[in-house]
């Protein structure tokens, strides 16, 4: 079966709903699970599926994403595989930036002419899942698809937040609605497995994963089909092109908000998390050559640690602790994600800060942190208390912001000793 595929990862959005984590970086560059970046997920799924021709489209706050990809993905000189960056650009023919997901791919098509491919796999850079794209590609080819959309069954409550499509018994999509209102859901149920039907998951949501036959996508762009896949390309293709639904039954979540990001990370701490980091399909990322983590005198339960941590906390429970995190004695971390640091402070600086009563990078002595996300390179002084919850109004507070009761301490923020949040 012909699997001549080029994969495109969309990584250019502003990610405003993930602010302040996206203040200095694009959404796909946000650290996840203590040692990875969100963009590692779609790239790893491609590599584990035997697809090694990958382009990442970037536009907004792209410096850290570019650096991560450059330092992470290297193929040997005898391989035809690559993971390359395609940055948004202005030229004599087009002086505007990307106007939507489809426009990003449209503007990049001229750069694809040097590659030999028959199918284009288009992926989002901000989702958490493990999927073998070969199975979806086989489905697309065997059924003669022009466009195949990966879909996942959802219930009526969740359906209003997704693009919902209706398919017939053969997988042909007959209608599509972008984030329909609750009153529009009647009649949009599709054929799903008995297990999903029993759970009330009878609506098929688009996962933002598409396979196009190359010639068809070019034809759509020539026809001026629109700037966005969800709002323009998909609705316009129904009835005109063979548009198929490929149902996926595994775990998938869209990392679109602070709450979904927080929940996805803490789910990794469970005995049997929905996203399995320990499967035979590894998640690839930058090899940092860090020392192992060191834990001294701490009670630890349901926690995930990155590399190179120095932990002397009293208690860490149901939390993710990122690379190079330092937590001093007497501190407690509960239901939180501490992203860690990009570098170690030298000993001289640490001693000097201790003498002058200034916080060092990491978490100081006798702190209590609950329901929080600490971005990288934070300086948390001694006796700091951060207690998230619905009692704190959402908003931006300078060193930190609050969304859905989750306290997000900004990258590089300094919280003096004795600071209380919540």
From TrEMBL:
EC number: 2.7.7.27
SUPFAM superfamilies found in the cross-reference section: Nucleotide-diphospho-sugar transferases (SSF53448), Trimeric LpxA-like enzymes (SSF51161)
GO terms, molecular function: ATP binding; glucose-1-phosphate adenylyltransferase activity
Enzyme class: transferase
Segments forming domain Nucleotidyl transferase: 7-268
InterPro entries: ADP-Glc_PPase, ADP_Glu_pyroP_CS, NTP_transferase_dom, Nucleotide-diphossugar_trans, Trimer_LpxA-like_sf
Keyword Nucleotide-binding included in the entry's annotation: yes
GO annotation terms (biological process): glycogen biosynthetic process
CDD domains listed in its UniProt record: ADP_Glucose_PP (cd02508), LbH_G1P_AT_C (cd04651)
UniProt KW keywords: ATP-binding, Carbohydrate metabolism, Glycogen metabolism, Nucleotide-binding, Nucleotidyltransferase, Transferase
PANTHER family: GLUCOSE-1-PHOSPHATE ADENYLYLTRANSFERASE LARGE SUBUNIT 1, CHLOROPLASTIC-RELATED, GLUCOSE-1-PHOSPHATE ADENYLYLTRANSFERASE-RELATED
Entry's family note: Belongs to the bacterial/plant glucose-1-phosphate adenylyltransferase family.
Name of protein: Glucose-1-phosphate adenylyltransferase
Species the sequence originates in: Chryseobacterium ureilyticum
